[in-house]
Predict the structure.
Amino acid sequence: MSSTELISIISGNIAGMGMDGHRAKRWAFKDFMHGGEIVDSGISMKQGKQEPRIGEWTKLYIKGKGFFTVWDPDKHQTMYTRLGDFHIDGSGTMVTKEGFKLMGTPLEGSYTRLRRERTLNAYNTDPTNRTDFFQANVFNYSNSGADQQLVPPGRPIGNTQEISLALDPRNGKYLGLYDEIKIAEDGIVYGKDGNNLVSLYKIQLANFNNAEGLTDKKDGVYFEPNESSGLPTLASTNSTILSEAIEKSNVFSKVEAHYLTEAQRYFQFATQAQKLADKITGTAIELIQ
């Protein structure tokens, strides 16, 4: 039964390989002579591969440690995930495909006046030769090539809440004011109105002392804390958020295939051990008789 359970765990990892944001389960197998024992080694939090989603600013990728905080409005439950596959729902809120709401802290508006965007010319024909917003909190829009630093974002003006960026039906702008929404590496959500860039929200990444000990709540993608993981803390300052990308599963087929081969060997060993035990028992009975 333990060997079969082990094969089931590995098969689940392989099945989740094609699921964005999925985390692999880790295990150990021991004590063969007494029927075998599965030891839960937690969840692997190794970084998954990055999948570009060009042109989709709501898709977010965490580079480094940390989890997005989402709220399930049906079960009134907070969960944590590495998957940043968000979109804007009918009410203008950033949500997952399951309808879980992305949480953030509202900020006081802090304006940055952007300089005129540098265009390609005979002296600059490489479209990649400019600092992009999604790579750092600087703009390289001046003809001189000097970086433009952003004005620091405004202070928090409320508690953590859902991130609402509804389009105003009267003018088609976000919150009735902004033509575009940009998300910086530090998790600041900006509204862009012409050459003005305004801070709106802060996406707060959470981390845990023992992230591998989190409880799997849904499909190896959404988790909740427990005594083993500890309470959520702020993510590392080395963690960044990249827009227009999401994280793939951290399951690697070659690794899981190797584990599956081991599991099959464990199963064969357990079967042979059981047959041997039956044979020894039968011999003992014959001797008694």
Summary: The longest helix spans residues 253-288. Residues 50-247 form one domain. The chain is about 15% helix and 30% strand.
